[in-house]
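Troubleshooting entry. Yesterday's outputs looked truncated, so today I'm pasting the complete records for two proteins to confirm everything comes through intact. If either block looks cut off, that's the bug. Protein one:
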Amino acid sequence: PQLLHILDSILAWTGAALLFSFIRHYGIEEEAVYIVQNPEHPLVLSILIQGLVVGIGLGILFGLTDLIFDLPIFAPLAFWIMISLRMVAHVVTTLLLLSLSSYLIEEVYKEQIEEYMIEFLATGAFSKTALVILIYTGVVSILLGLIRQINGMFGPGMMVKLLMGRYYKPKEEARIFMFLDLKSSTTYAERLGHKL
């Protein structure tokens, strides 16, 4: 189940990263201030590669982070506290990744960096772009946390059935029920008590 959760996380965050890359960059070449970074590659290919790489990386990292929150010590926490903790962990992780990546890019490619990139790298995780990324990460984290918690409450696959309207259109099904009458069941229940 842990590997399955990490795979789910990879798929979800890859989708989120592709959506972010598409919204952020598609059509930007029509703007007058756009600087062509690599004219050999079409922009759509760059968006796809960027979204896949970032999404897979974040999916693995956030999937492993979420496994920490599956530990029994977090089980008694309220629904909103659990989602908030996950969101904070994801945003802090993203902030650390932005800081680390801007530092590494600046150190490795010092001579090859264009002038317009130096200003961005100097601000690193505190630029306007980083703020947009952090807000987007927080919103997506809350949405994915809600979906994950709801799936945990109702069981896997139930949310999809609810969204597809399966429970709004009654359908006759053949089911088998077993009724069991246990002799002296009240005595056994009283002996067990209300706590196990």
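Protein two, checking that the full record survives here as well:
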Amino acid sequence: CRSDLPADHPYVASSATNLAWLLYDTGRYAEAEPLFREAQTFYRLRRGTAHPKTAEPLRGLGQTALAKGDSDRAESLLREALSIFETALGSGHWSTAITESVLGECLTTLGRHAEAEQLLVKSYPIMKRLRGPRDRYVRAALKRIVGLYRAWRKPDEVDKYRALLTEPAPVPVERSAHESDGAPTGPGPLTQGPLR
């Protein structure tokens, strides 16, 4: 793609973001991070700091920091992305909800359970409504809630949300990983597996 298009072409930034998510999914965080940074810089310059396209790779940077164990940096990046998504798209949008879910996971790792609970419990039903209970990203959000209550030592809540995970496994969905309703989120330390 880079050889056929000028460096300032939007497809280059989009391709960088998509490749970064692929690398992220395979645990290659050191390789994903500069691609997220490249795309985020491109979108900041071309679309502005308040555009959702700017927030998408910013969320990727936050998720990468979280996966690498840098929860403080992840929180800052995820809060910035969330602010952009909330302002540009509203609270009921997929990108806003998934960013809230990942930020909730981040706050769980920081031991800020009450803050995490607000975000996780708010975002899960929105995600479930938009994609259904069997979607793998919705199930990852549910696993984040279970992880929160496990870390918070609330076994009744763990059991309540874990029971929802016993629903049938996700079915493959014919959809782009980065369709217009937002890019998927990553597993981070609380949700194991190749989910974004």
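Both blocks look complete. Sanity check on protein two: The mean pLDDT is 86.
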